[in-house]
Amino acid sequence: MNQVPAIRLNNGTDMPQLGFGVFQVPDSEAAQAVGAALEAGYRSIDTAAAYGNEEGTGQALAASGVPREELFVTTKLWNGRSRTWRRDDVLRAFDDSLAKLGLDHLDLYLIHWPRPMRDDFLTIWKTFEEIAQSGRAHCVGVSNFRPQDLERLGAESTLVPAVNQIELHPLFPQPELRALHSRLGIATEAWSPLGQGKELLTLPAVAEAAAKHGRSPAQVVLRWHLDLGNVVIPKSVTPSRIRENLDVFGFELDDADRAALDALGTGPSAGRIGPDPAVFDV
């Protein structure tokens, strides 16, 4: 039974709080991985044009037998390729993603990176407004946007992003950005919610909470995210881990657990793992 709670987005759409991500999953393996996730009970699938696995993801969606209305599918505009993006570029990229996924609409479409040095995300966002108004994307949002990027959008557009998908985990909790999201009505979605498995899952605070509750370190970290209200999209190609990452609703962290995990954000291992949006130009 699918027991994943939903987050109500700012346009009234419900988004599962826990989904399945396919970052770094080869297209040749995506169909199998996404198929295993859907069989396990996931209904939210997160991909991106830049991942190169939209076709494999779409094959799994088609083969699953899960009704389209039960699915929540996200992909992202690959707004890179060392050029400035215009309206027609965005529309072509959107159509290409839909075709690869084999869908007639998306549940969520995101600008993948702000690329402030290109100064084109306002033009892209205006085109996203058109896509949202057409109904071919039920929600639109952003990824990796900084506070100043969100403020620029707010100054130029009345459409508030439904989601900002950002790097977020106990070693990089981004409290100021989460607080801004809360004020603006933007849902916080965490990529690399497990810190890409590097160091985080072996830290004493995580290991001790896992032992206390008879859970894995990954389950403890995912539970921490859910308690904060974050949307999370862990990824794996291992069926047992895919199932394990979904099995996080039968226990609760206590105040001491949460305090110990919160403290990691200011500890000696704290910091960003992925690219810095201020300088990253895909």
Word description of this protein:
The protein is α/β, with parallel strands linked by helices. It has helices spanning about 25-40, 55-65, 85-100, 120-135, 145-155, 175-185, 205-215, 215-230, 240-245, 255-265, and strands at about 5-10, 15, 20, 45, 70-75, 110, 140-145, 165, 185-190, 230. The strands form two sheets. It has an eight-stranded parallel β-sheet. Strands 1-2 form a two-stranded antiparallel ribbon. Strand 3 (about 20), helix 1 (about 25-40) and strand 4 (about 45) form a beta-alpha-beta unit. Helix 1 (about 25-40) runs parallel beside helix 2 (about 55-65). The N and C termini lie far apart (about 40 Å).
Tally of alpha and pi helices: 10
Compressed to H and E, one letter per element, the order equals EEEHEHEHEHEHEHEHHEHH
Largest sheet: 8 strands, parallel
Spatial order of the strands in the main sheet? 3-4-5-6-7-8-9-10
Structural class computed from helices and strand pairing: alpha/beta
Percentage of β-strand residues: 5-15%
Average pLDDT taken over every residue = 96
Radius of gyration: 18 Å
Estimate the global geometry from the Cα principal axes.
Answer: globular
Key attributes of the depicted protein:
282 residues; alpha/beta; eight-stranded parallel beta sheet; two-stranded antiparallel ribbon; 10 strands; 40% helix
Summarize the structure.
The protein is of the alpha/beta class. The protein contains ten helices and ten strands. The protein has helices at 27-40, 54-64, 87-101, 121-134, 147-156, 175-184, 204-213, 217-228, 239-246, 255-263; strands at 6-8, 14-16, 20-21, 44-46, 72-77, 108-111, 140-143, 163-167, 187-191, 231-232.
